[in-house]
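Q: Hi! First time doing this. I have a protein sequence and I read that you can turn it into a structure. Is that right? Here it is:
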Amino acid sequence: MNRYWGMMLGAAACVLPMMPGAAKADETPFAALYTTDILPQGGKEVEQWLTYEHGRPFESWNHVEGRTELEYGLTNDFQIAAYLNYDYFSVRPNDPAEPSTETLDFSSGSIEAIYRIADPYTHPVGVAVYLEPAFGPDSREIEAKILLDTHFLDDRLILAVNGILEYEWERAPGGGPFGHATELTVLAGASYRVAEGFYAGLEFEAKHEGDGLLFGEAFHPAADSYRIGPTLHYARDNWWVTAGWLAQLPTAATLNGEPDEVVGGFAHEVPRHSLRFRFGVEF
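A: Yes, that's right. Below is the predicted 3D structure, encoded as structure tokens:
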């Protein structure tokens, strides 16, 4: 675990020297949701994510996910980005006969594209489309989103919704066949500017998971789950920071009849608790 936090501090040390003093940062008032606010043409931003996830049945399960991102505005309505994604896992089964594991790995690299169709400042609703393929040694992923947001009360109140389709291909480390999975997610949130540069809000997530690829092969639904939690956001000059917490509600439903898919009302594959920090610097 100490190695991972050392890596995070190193990433922050690389980002902080890039902070100039005049530009205004591209704000993201949500921890999980995306809005249609993107960089202007020629704008550049470095963003660092750090997510801690905890809690699964039958084991002490801890996951720390890091993401280092460089964004660039190709036009005022088209933004691209490149990510490096890395993970730390610590798993200790409740059964003492089962082995514990601890890993720190580079998981994948990602490319992101966001095209804004309408912005919420000149239209009733902002609309954008998002596409992100990711490639790693033992995983492949493609994520597509529709982004919607609208502003009220002279832009003090922001409401946002994301619809997400995610295809996943994963295999055991070292080789073997890839397993296929699909996630369908709806994220919704509200964020209110309570003081200059400071927002407080709430996010809600509804997730539908299954084995196989939807629209590509036989898809077998596995579970539905729901999470909710608060977000805080602060922006000043050319930098911003966002923190958010999501807690799984004990209302998950098994869809495939597997007895371990949902335990005590919680979906096995979805963390009970997730804490995320995002930090961005525009330059």
